[in-house]
Specification:
The chain is an alpha/beta fold. The chain is 37% helix and 21% strand. It contains eight helices and nine strands. A hairpin with a 5-residue loop joins β8 and β9. α1 packs parallel to α7, α5 crosses α6 and α7 packs antiparallel against α8. The longest helix is centred in the last third of the chain and has 17 residues. It is globular, with a radius of gyration of 17 Å.
């Protein structure tokens, strides 16, 4: 999508808020803005967290949440949607109700655990995500742990097939949580062989890499890229944000999502 001087492709983000700015809505906005798109955002939950831990989650009222989504679609021509942490069954239902009749690409990052290890989604919630949101999903981006939890199998090919069977058009399973020398990411589509991507494993622990990846895919699709090009660019971009990561807090490193816009000093 070619953006005119006074226009940018618009990406709707539905996700949680991380006060540290490493993950969640802020990560999404930065990744989308860096791609040249504009993010409109509806927050599912407030969290109390930093780069070391997360202690509390407070979900938004579903009625107020619905009004925000409606007003966004009343006013903006949304080119793509990224969904991150939901954390509440009622909000899953609301998202389904508001998006099911709107034909836009949806990128779903099914966040179950935070990068610091806390569970962020109940089994009931992610069960509803599978049945209600996967049929709307262009690509779902679980890491290997999330793929195994969502599908109840340790076999990643079977896990991908199960996610596709729920209705997702494609599945990108990322391998950052595995204890391997390289990170293996695999894109599965309903037709065709899986596409594998290998990346050098970086030594540090990062806060918000999954948000960066999924929101960048959404931005790339909003810009008119096909799925494979969007996925390939998003992986390269995300890896570079991690390689150039910022030591801002005391634990996990923040991806530098504007590494490619900063002047050398």
């Amino acid at each position: 999508m070619a953006a005119s001087k006074n226009k940018k492709p618009i990406v709707l983000v539905i996700a949680g808020h991380d006060p540290s700015g490493g993950a969640g809505i802020q990560a999404d906005i930065e990744s989308i803005a860096n791609a040249g798109c504009h993010a409109v955002t509806v927050i599912t939950s407030l969290t109390a967290q930093n780069t070391n831990k997360i202690t509390n989650i407070s979900s938004q009222d579903s009625g107020f949440f619905r009004k925000q989504i409606k007003l966004i679609f009343d006013d903006f021509s949304v080119a793509a949607c990224k969904i991150g942490m939901i954390g509440d069954v009622e909000l899953v239902d609301t998202i389904h109700n508001e998006l099911s009749d709107i034909k836009i690409p949806i990128i779903l990052d099914p966040i179950i655990n935070s990068g610091t290890g806390k569970n962020l989604s109940s089994k009931k919630t992610y069960g509803r995500i599978l049945t209600l949101l996967l049929p709307l999903t262009t690509v779902i981006t679980p890491n290997t742990l999330e793929a195994k939890i969502l599908t109840g199998t340790d076999n990643l090919k079977i896990a991908a097939d199960k996610l596709l069977s729920y209705g997702a058009k494609s599945v990108l399973i990322t391998g950052s949580h595995e204890k391997t020398n390289t990170v293996l990411n695999t894109l599965y589509e309903k037709n065709g062989s899986p596409t594998k991507y290998k990346w050098k494993r970086l030594a540090s622990s990062f806060h918000g890499s999954g948000c960066t990846l999924s929101s960048r895919i959404a931005a790339n699709i909003a810009l008119g890229n096909n799925l494979k090009n969007a996925v390939e660019d998003a992986q390269e971009y995300t890896w570079q944000t991690l390689k150039n990561g910022l030591e801002l807090g005391k634990n996990q490193i923040h991806p530098d999502r504007f590494f490619n816009m900063e002047n050398d000093t």
